[in-house]
C-alpha cells in the first residue's frame, strides 16, 4: 500500500460481507508520521470533496497554522449516479448494508493500516447531498463508533428524521448541518425539481431539542460546491481542534 505523504491514493477494497469491490481513496498529510496517532475524516462522494472542495488543501492550511490536530482523510467515491442512489440515498436498496460495511469493515481496515486514535470522538464523517444523508445515517446508527458528522445539504424526508427519533440516545453525537437558502426549489442531478430547505428545517427543529452537540447553518446559495466549499474550513476546525 502506497504511504507517500501529501498525495491522494486509491485502492480497490474487497468487502467480504457484501462480496463487492469498492474504490477507497485516502490522503496522508504532508507531515505524516506513523510515530503519531491521527484522527480520521471519512468523506462520501470523496472525489468531489477532493476535486471541488479541495479538502486536503483546507486541512494543510489549518494544520500549518496549528489550528487543528493531525488527521488522515479517507474517502468513498461514487462510481455512477445510479450507484449513488442505491447506496447513499436513505431509501436506497443497499443503504443499510453499506452502513454496516463502513461501521465494521472499512473502519477496521483504517485502524489496522494507519496510526489512528481508534475512538468514536476521533472520527468524523462528511458528505454532501445524498452522501450527507449517508454520513448522518451512520452517525445515528453508530453514535459511539462515529461521534462526529457533517452533512452539507442532505436529502431529508420523514423516514430520515425518524432515524434520529428512534434512537435511545444521541448524546454521543456532534453534528454539523448546513442547507442553502436557494434550495427550496432546484433541479437535482436526476433532473427532478426538489425542495430540500423545508425538510432540512424540520430536521433542525427536532435535533435542536435533543441532547447532543449540534451546529446548524443556513447558507446563501444553492445545492452546489460553491456554497459548500467555504464550510469545510470551519467544519475541520470544529471537529479537529
Automatic annotation (TrEMBL):
Coiled coil: none annotated. Pfam families: Esterase. The keyword Lyase does not apply. Keywords: Hydrolase. InterPro entries: AB_hydrolase_fold, Esterase-like, Mycobacterial_A85_antigen. It comes from the Bacteria. The keyword Amino-acid biosynthesis does not apply. GO terms for molecular function: hydrolase activity. This is Alpha/beta hydrolase-fold protein.
Amino acid at each position: 500500500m502506497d504511504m507517500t505523504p501529501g498525495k491522494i491514493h486509491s485502492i480497490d477494497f474487497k468487502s467480504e460481507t457484501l462480496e463487492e469491490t469498492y474504490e477507497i481513496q485516502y490522503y496522508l498529510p504532508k507531515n505524516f508520521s506513523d510515530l503519531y496517532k491521527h484522527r480520521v475524516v471519512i468523506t462520501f462522494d470523496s472525489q468531489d470533496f477532493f476535486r471541488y472542495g479541495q479538502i486536503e488543501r483546507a486541512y494543510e492550511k489549518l494544520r500549518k497554522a496549528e489550528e487543528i490536530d493531525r488527521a488522515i482523510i479517507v474517502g468513498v467515491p461514487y462510481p455512477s449516479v445510479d450507484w449513488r442512489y442505491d447506496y447513499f440515498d436513505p431509501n436506497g436498496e443497499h443503504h443499510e448494508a453499506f452502513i454496516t460495511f463502513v461501521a465494521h469493515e472499512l473502519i477496521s481496515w483504517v485502524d489496522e493500516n494507519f496510526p489512528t486514535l481508534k475512538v468514536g470522538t476521533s472520527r468524523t464523517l462528511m458528505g454532501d447531498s445524498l452522501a450527507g444523508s449517508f454520513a448522518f445515517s451512520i452517525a445515528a446508527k453508530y453514535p459511539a463508533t462515529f461521534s462526529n458528522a457533517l452533512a452539507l445539504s442532505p436529502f431529508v424526508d420523514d423516514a430520515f428524521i425518524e432515524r434520529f427519533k428512534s434512537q435511545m440516545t444521541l448524546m454521543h453525537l456532534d453534528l454539523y448541518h448546513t442547507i442553502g437558502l436557494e434550495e427550496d426549489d432546484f433541479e437535482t442531478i436526476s433532473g427532478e425539481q426538489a425542495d430540500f430547505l423545508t425538510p432540512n428545517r424540520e430536521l433542525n427543529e427536532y435535533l435542536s431539542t435533543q441532547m447532543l452537540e449540534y451546529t446548524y447553518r443556513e447558507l446563501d446559495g444553492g445545492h452546489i460546491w460553491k456554497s459548500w466549499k467555504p464550510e469545510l474550513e470551519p467544519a475541520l476546525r470544529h471537529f479537529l481542534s
